[in-house]
Fold this sequence. Notes:
Order of helices and strands: HHHHHEE
Number of domains: 1
Shape: globular
CATH architecture: Orthogonal Bundle
Strand content: 5-15%
Amino acid sequence: MSSGYHTSWKVPPEHREDPAYRAAGRRMDFAQAVYDRRSALGWSTAELARRAELSEEDIEAIEESGVDPTLELIERLATALEAGARIDPRTSPEFRFEDRAA
């Protein structure tokens, strides 16, 4: 019978400041933001790829946290997703796409 040791992960504070740990977190937040916005619009990965002038494999790699969010990529996806991009390291998640103000 399980004693619940793996019910939550505890990351030591010194690891949270490691550049590789933070970069992985940014990729995960970016991936989730792209997926959430795409899903909210009811689009397939193929539709987003077409609108962003990327391949469907590129979109899948982004949504699998396999791509670093460069400024050029963020701008391209924000335009394609008809949204603004918000990055705030003081919040969790740090990254999200938002509807543009009317």
